[in-house]
Design goal:
The protein is an alpha+beta fold. Helices cover about 20% and strands about 30% of the residues. The protein has helices at about 1-25, 225-255, and strands at about 35-40, 45-50, 65-70, 70-80, 85, 95, 100-105, 110-115, 120, 125-130, 135, 145-150, 155-160, 165-170, 175, 185, 190, 200, 210-215, 215-220.
């Protein structure tokens, strides 16, 4: 009976869907987090009769007979819509309004990307992520600063005792044609794949790149209520598939008891 294996594929698919939603909810307070959506694909079909085939008497059959074999987990799509902004008042916090990522230098010399603007300074005065990875291009903050400000176009301004405001650098961002083609590394970091397209580097506000909001952080782009509704839908779908397994089992039991 195909219903047993078909319903089993549905239960496995809903388990996969639940894992995706659970990860979204677990990151409800993760800065710059982008939610994921699970997609599914139907499996192969057994073709008993093909539409357009020849029927009795040489007629053309208008409809076919196909029996599906279930569902499989397809892809997880990363949704890069804008998250909400939260004012922190921290000098080294910044959020990206629009498209773009901060570039960070990894310990092995490669480049990774992040939307998490919760930055700080290391012992050398460099702007770094919470894991200590310096952003690129490198910005070194002088220790004798009396003020620190980042303009929407990424220009970093500081003032020192007895000196006028001066620019010490400009933050650059990177945008991709298809951000969904980035691979997550964990730690709020991404690395590109060929599916992401070419990286376009530039100052904020140019070439379709978003602007900087100083002393703000971008929060996750998910709504807890929507994720909870998805949880309810997943639960009901899982119950429906398990009910189909139970029904198929009862039908087989009835068939086995016919001789008694």
């Amino acid at each position: 009976m195909r219903a047993l294996s078909t319903s089993a594929t549905g239960m496995v698919a809903q388990q996969f869907n639940l894992n995706v939603v659970a990860n979204n909810l677990a990151n409800v307070n993760t800065q710059g987090f982008k939610r994921q959506i699970a997609h599914f694909q139907d499996l192969l079909y057994q073709n008993i009769r093909i539409p357009g085939g020849t029927g009795a008497g040489g007629t053309m059959v208008p409809n076919g007979t196909q029996i599906g074999l279930g569902v499989s987990s397809g892809t997880t799509t990363q949704v890069f819509t804008q998250g909400t902004f939260q004012l922190t008042g921290n000098d080294f916090d910044m959020a990206i309004s629009g498209e773009g990522f901060f570039r960070v230098l990894m310990p092995d010399g490669t480049t990774a990307y992040t939307r998490d603007g919760a930055l700080g300074i290391d012992g050398q005065g460099r702007l770094v992520t919470q894991e200590g990875y310096p952003i690129q291009p490198e910005i070194i903050v002088p220790p004798d600063r009396t003020s620190f400000n980042i303009a929407p176009d990424g220009t970093v301004m500081v003032s020192r005792p007895g000196q006028p405001n001066e620019a010490i650098g400009r933050i650059e961002l990177t945008r991709f044609t298809n951000p969904a083609g980035l691979v997550r590394l964990g730690g709020n970091l991404y690395v590109p794949t060929p599916a992401a397209g070419d990286a376009v580097n530039g100052p904020p506000g140019e070439n379709g790149i978003g602007s900087i909001k100083h002393k703000f952080l971008e929060m996750p782009n998910l709504e807890v209520i929507e994720e909870m509704i998805r949880l309810i839908t997943i639960q009901r779908a899982f119950e429906s598939n398990s009910k189909a397994v139970q029904t198929a089992d009862e039908m087989l039991q009835t068939a086995n008891n016919l001789k008694r």
